[in-house]
Structures are given as C-alpha cells and as structure tokens.
C-alpha cells in the first residue's frame, strides 16, 4: 500500500526491503522494513525492462532452476536458487504471472509470497543459524514495464566483497547452488508449511 501511495503521489518507482543484522546494513537491532520511492527509475530497472520486452525473465530463471533441480517449492508461489546465483544461498521467490510492478499486485499474491518468504527465512535459520540477511522486492516501473514480473530475493550476508570482486565487478559464490539446495532441503525446504 505504501509503494502504491508513493506512485500515486508522483514517484517514478517504489519498492520495499527488509534488513536484518549489521552486515546487511541494518541500523537497528531487529529486522525492519523500508520503502524506497524515487523520482527517477533506477538504471537497472530500465535495463531489465528492455531485456524483458519479449520474454519473462523471472519465469525463464525459474524454468532454468527447475531443470537444474534447484526449485525448492512450486505452485502459486515458487522458491528457488538461481542456477547462476551470485551469492551463497541466494533465494528467489515469485508469484509468477503477477505483472511487472509490485505496487500493482493484488493482496492475495502478496500474502502468499510473504508466507513463502517467512518459510524461506526459517529454512535459512535452521540451515545456517542466525545470519544477517536482506529481503529485497525487485519491481519494475509503470513507465518501463517489460514482461518480467516482480520477485523477492532473500540474501543471507555470509561474506563481504573482496579484492577480486572489487577489481573485476564479478561475484564469487563459494557455495554451489546444488549444495545450498541440498542443505535447505535438509532444513525443511519444500516440505510445505
């Protein structure tokens, strides 16, 4: 509702995040959410819209994860590890087919996605312990909407960018997605609520 209100008031783009722990940029001790609204559409959102004008990149990423055995749940809302995940235990969660703008989504898909995020955080906690994390809602912009839908990423903050990442701009994922998927399944992923 707050994202929708910012867009109605003239913002070009809005989304939501949750931060937990200092390593995730949290400035207070407990998990807390923030809404960001900008007067301009961020460059990555414009690039994503251009790339997704002919195909839904979220659905395509989920399809690749299914083929690689990295989908943890499937149904109205899917949870998966991207096959080319740039960080250890990076999870993607989406109610596919719900359109490109988070603020335009109906309450039902948002509710079921929130429940899937809650479950994913529980799996991570059981598998890794209490680690810092970010939950980020990736949303298109009404003015630059491509076919890719909105999705959520859960990013456990297990390391920091080192020299290689800083000098090359390339990320190193030290935990292969298949290893992470197996550990999350052992922690209860995909077993339902």
Give me the secondary-structure topology.
Elements (H helix, E strand, L loop, with lengths): L1 H7 L4 E8 L11 E7 L4 H9 L5 H11 L3 E3 L4 E3 L10 E4 L12 H22 L4 E6 L12 E6 L6 H6 L8 H10 L7
Antiparallel strand pairs: 1-2, 1-6, 3-4, 4-5, 5-7, 6-7
Helix pairs in contact: 4-6
What does this structure look like?
This protein is 34% helix and 19% strand. The longest helix has 22 residues, at 107-128. The two termini are 26 Å apart. The chain has 193 residues and is of the alpha+beta class. It is built from six helices and seven strands. The model has no long low-confidence stretch (mean pLDDT 86). A seven-stranded antiparallel β-sheet has the order 2-1-6-7-5-4-3.
Briefly characterize the structure:
The chain has 193 residues and is α+β, with helices and mostly antiparallel strands. The chain has helices at 2-8, 43-51, 57-67, 107-128, 163-168, 177-186, and strands spanning 13-20, 32-38, 71-73, 78-80, 91-94, 133-138, 151-156. α4 (107-128) crosses α6.
For the termini, the CA-CA separation is 26 Å
Determine the oligomeric state from the structure.
single chain
Shape: globular
Q: Let me know the largest β-sheet.
A: 7 strands, antiparallel
Within the largest sheet, what's the order of strands?
Answer: 2-1-6-7-5-4-3
The overall strand count is 7
Uncertain residue ranges: none
What is the chain-wise order of helices and strands?
Answer: HEEHHEEEHEEHH
Structural class by secondary-structure content = alpha+beta
User: Overall mean pLDDT score?
Assistant: 86
Our estimate of the beta-strand percent is: 15-25%
Number of helices: 6
């Amino acid at each position: 509702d707050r994202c929708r209100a910012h867009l109605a008031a003239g913002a070009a783009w809005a989304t939501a995040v949750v931060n937990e722990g200092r390593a995730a940029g949290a400035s207070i001790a407990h998990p807390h959410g923030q809404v960001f609204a900008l007067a301009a559409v961020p460059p990555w959102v414009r690039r994503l819209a251009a790339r997704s004008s002919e195909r839904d990149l979220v659905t395509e990423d989920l399809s690749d994860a299914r083929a690689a055995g990295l989908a943890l749940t499937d149904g109205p809302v899917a949870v998966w590890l991207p096959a080319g995940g740039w960080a250890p235990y990076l999870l993607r969660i989406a109610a596919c087919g719900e359109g490109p703008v988070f603020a335009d989504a109906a309450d039902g898909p948002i509710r079921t996605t929130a429940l899937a995020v809650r479950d994913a955080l529980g799996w991570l906690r059981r598998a890794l312990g209490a680690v810092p994390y970010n939950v980020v809602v990736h949303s298109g912009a009404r003015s630059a909407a491509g076919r890719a839908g909105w999705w959520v990423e859960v990013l456990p903050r297990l390391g920091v960018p080192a020299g290689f990442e800083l000098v090359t701009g390339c990320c190193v994922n030290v935990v292969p997605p298949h290893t992470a998927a197996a550990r999350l399944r052992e922690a209860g992923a995909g077993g339902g609520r």
